[in-house]
């Protein structure tokens, strides 16, 4: 499912970033930008509404809508490795980030394994989006990240801890930026693994593969079918400090995602740019 308009400039940005090996570069165009005053207003509004009955009602509506959307979008999605979720309580889920709705693949897989609750860490700007997507971002179980150092140092960890203490899962994208329909895993950043080590919970390692179908989705892309890989969970070593633990967990997750790519696409992983890296793309650069 394509969200947004023409992707020609986005694909060009991905190509340039991949060739420069700038794996966490923002490539989307026309993303919302919040000035500090507006960003603070959005953040404070989010925090103020969390304990209110109004938020709980809207949260139920958003959760119900997300379940329905997940079911519709993943009617043909296959899953490999659901057994790897057995015995996991709280945990931090990591996956590759290539579509605003690819989190529904993770959600669908977790639901098949009996896990009904998934919180998602997202950029604060997403909470300011208009329309139905913005509504879901504001009222679904979203934990925003922001530039405010006090929030990130004190409030954000507390929000994350509350979800984990309830024995739920939290999705954090280690690649940071979304690269539309980009099939390869990208080197992760340390954030998710830091929190996994800090709170002594496992990393639920995932990778989503795409296959283009011979059906047009729009003028630029063919439709895409997903396969969700649930990889072996990565547990923190209680004898190691947070820094060492997080680096080791990050390295193992990166290795697992490269192996999953090779299994899914039947070819060795290479970071070199290839036109087929944008799945379903029918355009030219």
TrEMBL record:
InterPro entries membership: Plipid/glycerol_acylTrfase
Cited SMART domains: PlsC (SM00563)
UniProt-recorded name of the protein: Lysophospholipid acyltransferase family protein
Domain Phospholipid/glycerol acyltransferase: 91-211
UniProt keyword annotations, A-Z: Acyltransferase, Transferase
Pfam families for this protein: Acyltransferase (PF01553)
Record carries keyword Acyltransferase: yes
Record flagged with keyword Acetylation: no
Molecular-function GO term, any one: acyltransferase activity
Organism of derivation: Lactiplantibacillus daowaiensis
